[in-house]
């Protein structure tokens, strides 16, 4: 699946991110008690169809369920490629299932998937190896987030986890490693750059002030200068359908109207953010709700 800046095709390769929430789930949404490395509850509330709910205590996965989850990742990768995606990214970051196996706070196991670092990295390595075997390592990326406590994660020994994990992943040889860094992790970035032999995509957590200033453009330029092969910028696209055009023009950026607007139904907050140059975009679809012009000629994009 390839698309250009005009959406007509020809240009970028699209990788589909494969995520397993592990304990980050709720029976009100899925109909099932979530599975996790250990029965350690997420210390946060979750959005469900019925509103915010306390997270349930997950059920610790059996060895058979762990192997089944590994196989599920491989099956999902095959399906993604069959659907036309250029590849997949294994999401081993942000407190989801692979990250839960990596962290001491969520992995209390004493079998081959728990305890020492070599065991806690096993699940992620097994998933990446299975996915690479299913679709080819050149179609596989891996996302990690060292020291990032999203979704209640407490790694405990970050400096021990990632050298071991990167060494094991490098033997598999995926197309790239995608790393999310919290603020103040420049030394850690340099360590990963030296340790990782392949393509490194850097992603920096942005403060509200950094995003408001330039959408992360300055941070991206610094990361490239310090050795990143590529830099990912994601949040800006949520409120700016023409985010790339705005960065090129140093144009002002729209802010996301509400942190949790993505959890409500309806078009608002999804397809009604204005574009900078309406001539580059199709007219709104028939019946789309009108919106007033913003500064510098902004107009709403077409309804999805």
Molecular structure report:
By secondary structure, this protein is of the alpha/beta class. It has helices spanning 27-30, 63-82, 97-102, 117-120, 122-135, 158-172, 186-195, 208-214, 217-225, 236-239, 243-249; strands at 2-3, 12-13, 15-18, 35-36, 45-48, 51-54, 59-60, 87-91, 140-144, 176-181, 199-204, 230-231. The protein has a 6-stranded parallel beta sheet with strand order 3-8-9-10-11-12. A two-stranded antiparallel sheet has the order 1-2.
Specify the structural class: alpha/beta
Reading side by side through the largest sheet, how are the strands ordered? 3-8-9-10-11-12
Q: Largest beta sheet, briefly?
A: 6 strands, parallel
How many strand units? 12
User: What's the helix-strand series?
Assistant: EEEHEEEEHEHHHEHEHEHHEHH
Strand content: 5-15%
What's the tally of helices? 11
Main attributes?
two-stranded antiparallel ribbon, alpha/beta, globular, 14% strand, 304 residues, 33% helix, disordered N terminus, disordered C terminus, single chain, six-stranded parallel β-sheet
Q: In summary, what is this structure?
A:
With 304 residues, this protein is α/β, with parallel strands linked by helices.
List the helices and strands and how they pair.
Blueprint: E1 2-3, E2 12-13, E3 15-18, H1 27-30, E4 35-36, E5 45-48, E6 51-54, E7 59-60, H2 63-82, E8 87-91, H3 97-102, H4 117-120, H5 122-135, E9 140-144, H6 158-172, E10 176-181, H7 186-195, E11 199-204, H8 208-214, H9 217-225, E12 230-231, H10 236-239, H11 243-249
Parallel strand pairs: 3-8, 4-7, 8-9, 9-10, 10-11, 11-12
Antiparallel strand pairs: 1-2, 5-6
Helix pairs in contact: 2-5, 5-6
């Amino acid at each position: 699946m390839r698309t250009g800046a005009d959406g007509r095709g020809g240009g970028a390769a699209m990788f589909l991110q494969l995520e397993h929430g592990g304990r980050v789930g709720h029976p009100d949404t899925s109909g099932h008690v979530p599975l996790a490395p250990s029965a350690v509850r997420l210390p946060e509330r979750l959005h469900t169809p019925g509103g915010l709910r306390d997270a349930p205590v997950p059920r610790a996965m059996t060895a058979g369920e762990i192997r089944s989850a590994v196989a599920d990742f491989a099956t999902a990768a095959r399906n993604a490629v069959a659907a036309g995606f250029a590849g997949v990214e294994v999401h081993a970051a942000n407190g989801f299932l692979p990250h839960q196996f990596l962290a001491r706070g969520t992995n209390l196991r004493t079998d081959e998937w728990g305890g020492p670092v070599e065991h806690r990295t096993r699940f992620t390595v097994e998933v990446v190896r299975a996915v690479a075997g299913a679709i080819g390592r050149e179609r596989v990326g891996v996302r990690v987030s060292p020291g990032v406590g999203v979704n209640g994660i407490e790694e405990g020994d970050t400096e021990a986890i990632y050298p071991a994990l990167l060494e094991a992943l490098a033997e598999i040889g995926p197309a790239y490693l995608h790393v999310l860094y919290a603020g103040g992790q420049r030394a850690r970035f340099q360590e990963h750059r030296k340790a990782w032999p392949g393509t490194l995509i850097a992603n920096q957590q942005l403060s509200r002030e950094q995003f408001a200033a330039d959408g992360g453009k300055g941070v991206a330029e610094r990361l490239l200068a310090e050795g990143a092969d590529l830099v990912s910028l994601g949040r800006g696209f949520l409120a700016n359908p023409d985010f790339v055009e705005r960065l090129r023009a140093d144009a002002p950026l729209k802010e996301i109207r509400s942190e949790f607007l993505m959890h409500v139904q309806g078009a608002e907050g999804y397809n009604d953010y204005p574009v900078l140059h309406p001539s580059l975009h199709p007219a709104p679809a028939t019946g789309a709700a009108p919106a007033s012009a913003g500064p510098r000629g902004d107009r709403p994009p077409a309804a999805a």
